[in-house]
Amino acid sequence: MGAGYNPPVAEAVEEQLNVYDEAGEVVGVMPRGAAKASGLAVGAVNALVVNARSEVLLQRRPADKENGGLWDKSVGGHVSAGESFDRTLVRETGEELFDDPASSRVALASTPEEFAARIRSGAARDAVVLQRAGLQLNLRDVRHAPGRAGVRNVLYHLAIYTGRTELTLAGFRPQPSEVDELRWASAGELDRLLLAGGLAPNMAFLWLSHGHALLKLARARD
């Protein structure tokens, strides 16, 4: 078992996850807790969503979750057994932002050209439009255990997505078990949260590595 991660007993009964070799190939399926403790890579998706005012959608993690109380990316989740990264992203976005894994207000573009066309068509006015921005293999993640009871390390293959929406906060219905609060934050507010330690560690990584490209999406013409 990998060092640095001590899963609670409850995680042993959670969903089955894909596990991967270092090259990104699926090599098996394990229960969530065992997968995260195995030393093998676990699949995950993270999305950052921006609006035309250059504000980034953040979610606050519940206190009883990893990185509890910190501000985190717009959407995040683990790749369940048999799922692709893209399928997981669509499901998790529906669950976390609309409390519906099959929400019709989630659209994933397969190419940058399709993404741009959807923005021009006005699709972002009442939906979250997303595109794949990258795939980070073998990311050594560092996170607070629930209740700040120690530090956890998990190896991830992380698919990163960026997106655009013009929905107000009232247009979302966040999943109560996963999201305490949503907010829109300007680039300056995000910078200050990062420096003050108010961001989850992986959100800090995403903001530093993809923030520049994300803010360009805010200026895309709809």
In short:
The chain has helices spanning 32-37, 85-98, 112-120, 187-195, 201-218, and strands at residues 16-20, 26-31, 41-50, 55-60, 71-72, 75-78, 106-109, 128-144, 151-164, 181-186. By secondary structure, the chain is α+β, with helices and mostly antiparallel strands. The radius of gyration is 17 Å and the shape is globular.
Describe this structure in words.
This protein is globular. Mean pLDDT is 93; it is low at 1-12. It is an alpha+beta fold and 222 residues long. It is built from 5 helices and 10 strands; from the N terminus they run ββαββββαβαβββαα. The chain has helices spanning 32-37, 85-98, 112-120, 187-195, 201-218; strands spanning 16-20, 26-31, 41-50, 55-60, 71-72, 75-78, 106-109, 128-144, 151-164, 181-186. The strands form 2 sheets. Strands 1, 2, 3, 6, 7, 8 and 9 form a 7-stranded mixed beta sheet that branches. It has a 3-stranded antiparallel beta sheet with strand order 5-4-10, with helices on one face. A hairpin with a 5-residue loop joins strand 1 (16-20) and strand 2. It has a single domain, classed as Nucleoside Triphosphate Pyrophosphohydrolase (Alpha-Beta Complex). The protein is 25% helix and 33% strand.
